[in-house]
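Continued from yesterday's entry.
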Amino acid sequence: MPNFWHDIARRSAPAAEPWSVQIDDAQAGRVTLHGALRREPGALGKRCLVVVHGLGGSFDRHYCTTAALAAQRAGWSCLRFSLRGADRSGDDFYHAGLTADVHAAVSSEALADLDSVYVLGYSLGGHVTLRYALEEPGPRVQGAAAVCAPLDLELSAQHIDAPSSFVYRRHVLDGLKQIYAAVARRRSLPTPLEQVQRVSSIRTWDRLTVVPRFGFDSVDDYYGSMSVGPRLDRLRVPSLLVQSTLDPMVPPWTYEGHLAKSLPQLTVRRIPAGGHVAFPQVPDESGRPGSLEGQILQWFASQPQRT
């Protein structure tokens, strides 16, 4: 429903300048990432929110617009960008643990004069963001946040591939197939496009596309080596995880087991409302309703500065 209403109403994101950065990939060659950067004046404008979209989407999704509007209200600069190929450019495609694009965005020349960077990812973009936070992102990166993020790729795939998730699965696969088709028009790929177009499950998608493209031994190898859930105790920066207990795409049983241990760098917030990457006005810690993204920015601002 949020996607449906967004496509009809289309709230406008704040005015921004086109942004791009190039990455040299060993297999794909030169990959260009595209996005939109809005710079705000003043001291608060030296803080930059970097927004990462979900699976099959791009930087113009409704939740990315919501984040950009929250950054504008707070006086922060904001970069929304598309992971490789998400803009249907045909350069390449991405996977759940590919952090190179986030590294390239944060270290891009356009952000070089900004003092502090905070990364906010949604859905699979939230998983990528947390994977990024496991690495050493550099002293300017002060925090990371993930909204409705799958933490266990195996369990998440099982849920999305269940018959009850048909509508959500088809929505995601449609976007992924568009991305793959654009790449196939530009260069040869390990799996023929005709075979990929017949895929009807996430696990099969990963087996035929991600595994051969990125050199994993199998789907199990991909899920096991990339899932962030078992590694959350290794986060390098203060991180926030926001999950809806009613999420139809990432239900609690797929991730709660990974939150049962001590996680010193992770704050978890469970919200008994909303859906997948879409929330109503939610109460903050004082009970006052407000936008989720505004509260995430407040949480970021409350964290001690890394040096």
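--- second protein ---
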Amino acid sequence: MSQMPAKKVAIIVAHPDDETLWAGGTILSHPSWHCFVISLCRREDKDRAPKFIKALEILKSEGIMGDLDDGPEQIPQQDYNVENEIIKLLPPQHYDLIITHHPLGEYTRHLRHEEVGRATINLWNSGKISTDELWIFAYEDGNKKYLPRPVKEAPVFRDLTKRIWKRKYSIITEIYGFDKNSFEAETTPRSEAFYPLSNSFEAKQWLELQSSRPTL
């Protein structure tokens, strides 16, 4: 019997460490996946950029970084700027699965997360990227009432094994170097959750629904 081809997966995130925080356990749990990770920000960050490369080695993934503005002021980016950056970085091929940010983010609130999620959906809807399925990170923080946590009601919700979670946590603390009392280390989810979208029309409708929800 011939071996099934490896699943082609793209993970599109705003920052180096987002791929690990929100989907690292899923990547580690699927060693047969051929993953390509895009971080749209921090290419020129002399601290974070080399750590991203080391994280990809542990995740057994390939990847690339962009240099989208990521200043502390969080100046909003035009949709076309974010979309163009994704198109520039993402290898032009068909994917079995793309994973990205929620258009409302994973916590209250980070514009780059929101912009990347929205741009990815728009690109799929316009036919500029091709995938069989899109998974959206499913996390929330109760409007800053607690650290981000996975949405238990999400259609895809998976508890990580202790071994997988420890490997994920070690990437955050040992590779990226976040202190154990940091937001990132304390957040590192022991479960991962996603909203799966099976076609681009459904994704566009879902985006419009999310966009109608009030943000603070």
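The chain has one domain: 8-211. Residues 111-125 form the longest helix (15 residues). Will compare against the first tomorrow.
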